[in-house]
Amino acid sequence: MAKAAVVEENTALQKVKEPGKKLGDFLGDVRSEMRKVSTPSTAETRTTTAVVIVTVFAFAAYFWIVDFGINHSLNALITKLTQH
Q1: Which residues contact 68 (CB under 8 A, 6 or more apart)?
Q2: CA atoms of 52 and 44, how far apart (whole Å)
Q3: What is the enclosing helix (H) or strand (E) of 36?
Q4: What does the alpha-carbon distance between residue 84 and residue 81 come to, in Å, rounded to a whole number?
Q5: What was the pLDDT predicted at 21?
Q6: What's the confidence (pLDDT) of residue 18?
Q7: Are 48 and 40 in contact (CB under 8 A)?
Q8: Higher per-residue confidence, 80 vs 8
Q9: Which residues 6+ apart lie within 8 Å of 40 measured at CB?
Q10: What is the pLDDT of residues 39-65, one digit of tens each?
Q11: What are the C-alpha distances in Å from 30 to residues 20, 23, 24, 37?
C-alpha cells in the first residue's frame, strides 16, 4: 500500500509540473518563430500604404457607380409602374 501512495504523489507532481513545461515549450517556440520575422523598410511600408489607399478609393468609386446605377434603375422602374 505504501507503493501506491508514492505512485500517486509522483503522478500528482507530474500533473503540477506539466502545465509549466507546456508553457515553457510554447514560449520557446514563440521565441524561435519571432527570430524569423522581418520588418519591412520605410519605403516598403509607404508603398504598401499607398497601394491600399488607392485600392480603397477605387473600390469606393466602383461601388458608388453600381449603387447609383441600381438606384436610378429602380426609381425609373417604380415610377413607370406606378403611373396610370
Answers
A1: none
A2: 12
A3: none
A4: 8
A5: 84
A6: 74
A7: yes
A8: 80
A9: 48
A10: 999 999 999 999 999 999 999 999 999
A11: 15, 10, 10, 11
**How high is the pLDDT of residue 11?**
74
Q: Which triple of cell numbers denotes residue 54?
A: 488607392
Give the number of other CB atoms < 10 A from CB of residue 10. Answer: 10
Provide the CA 1 distance to its chain's centre, in angstroms: 55
C-alpha cell at 31: 521565441
Query: Per the structure block, which three cell numbers stand in for 50?
Result: 499607398
51 residue type, one letter: V
- Give the pLDDT confidence of 11-37 residue by residue, as tens digits: 766 666 677 788 999 999 999 999 999
Distance in angstroms (rounded) separating the CA atoms of residues 15 and 9: 10
Count, residues in the chain? 84
Say how far apart CA 30 and CA 14 lie, in whole Å: 24
CA distance 8 to 18: 15
